[in-house]
Amino acid sequence: MHTRLAATSAVAAAMAVASLTMVSAAGQAPAAAKKATPPAKTGKTYALPRTPWGDPDLQGVYTNNDESGIPIERPSQFEGKRLEDVSESELEQLRSQREDQRVAVAPNLGGIPGTNPVHWFENFGAKNSRAWLLVDPPDGRIPPTTQEARSRLPVRGGSSFGGGPFNSHQDFSLYDRCITRGIPGSMMPAIYGNAYQFVQGPGWVGIRYEMIHETRVIPLDGRSHVGKGIKLDMGDPRAHWDGDTLVVETTNFTRRSTYQNTNPETFRLIERFKPVDANTVEWSVTLNDPATWTRPWTYAMNLVKGGPAQQPFEYACHEGNYAVRNMLSAARKAERDAAAK
């Protein structure tokens, strides 16, 4: 699909600026961010519904549109401050600043002003739930990398549209090639496609991702992970319930899709889906790789049920995806032109 192809360029740029671009799905001009009132603290514990077989019921379609534009690490203006100590007035000021940035940047994403139809953008007016995402370490900073990680060769295919060099399809990222955003990349908000559908059955949970259109079917029956010789782009997940919180541990990543050039042999990803109220689940992820970071670290965001997305839209990324072919062709033409001179 041509629109999906052209949007990929904008998506890659948006991810690089912490998803600064958002527009109403209805194609209207962006409006000023509205004030968001945090859930009232009643002191009561939310009673999660149960499935017919007795598991906590997380089923439904969620979005993290409102978490667009939140940096992972603590912004410099909050140096020395804890995440929980950021006041509502400070958070509201941040929302306003981030909205101004989104409105300013959106028209030029993709390199050619005015080429991005507004219906591609779904998250103008994002009502961020927090000032930054990282919750551990408490200083809001990603831990230092190890010497081994610093000397590790980068994975081929890190280039995105507009980068280069483009000598092969393998020089493009898996995201650009419509293969995968990986984990936790698939949970990060972008300019569109931020719907997540949870389905459940006895002994398993399924999570369907709108962007790239992947689905993880996660066993809950206590089985062990697959053998070390089996590697998967989204890893091999196993889950259990900790009270009403769904805990998912994933291993067996491929080298090509592992997060931030981690070591797939030692990388473990622990996700927690914690119900907050009838419409909100807090998703947190712990990244644990002693070969890459000096200690594990965790960040979190909210998934909210409802809104315009009643189910994930079809993500026909490969339909009419001529971008890789055309960019390789353009690179060869540039080489011929240079040789002719």
Number of structural units classed as domains: 1
In helices, the fraction of residues equals 10-25%
Instruction: Estimate the mean pLDDT confidence.
Output: 83
Structural class of the secondary structure composition? alpha+beta
Percent strand: 15-25%
Q: So how many helices?
A: 4
Low-confidence stretches: 1-40
What is the CA-CA span between the terminal residues?
37 Å
Can you describe what's shown?
- With 341 residues, the chain is α+β, with helices and mostly antiparallel strands.
- It has one domain.
- Helix content is 16%, strand content 20%.
- Strands 1, 2, 3, 4, 5, 6, 7, 8, 9 and 10 form a ten-stranded antiparallel sheet that branches.
- A hairpin with a 2-residue loop joins strand 6 (236-242) and strand 7.
- The two termini are 37 Å apart.
- Mean pLDDT is 83; it is low at 1-40.
Write the SSE topology.
Layout: H1 2-16, E1 60-63, H2 88-105, E2 134-136, H3 147-151, E3 195-201, E4 204-209, E5 215-219, E6 236-242, E7 245-251, E8 268-277, E9 280-288, E10 297-305, H4 323-340
Antiparallel strand pairs: 1-3, 1-10, 2-10, 3-4, 4-5, 6-7, 7-8, 8-9, 9-10
Q: Which short descriptors sum up this protein?
A:
341 residues; alpha+beta; 10-stranded antiparallel sheet; 4 helices; globular
Give a short summary of the structure.
With 341 residues, this protein is α+β, with helices and mostly antiparallel strands. Helices cover 16% and strands 20% of the residues. The longest helix is centred in the first third of the chain and has 18 residues, at 88-105.
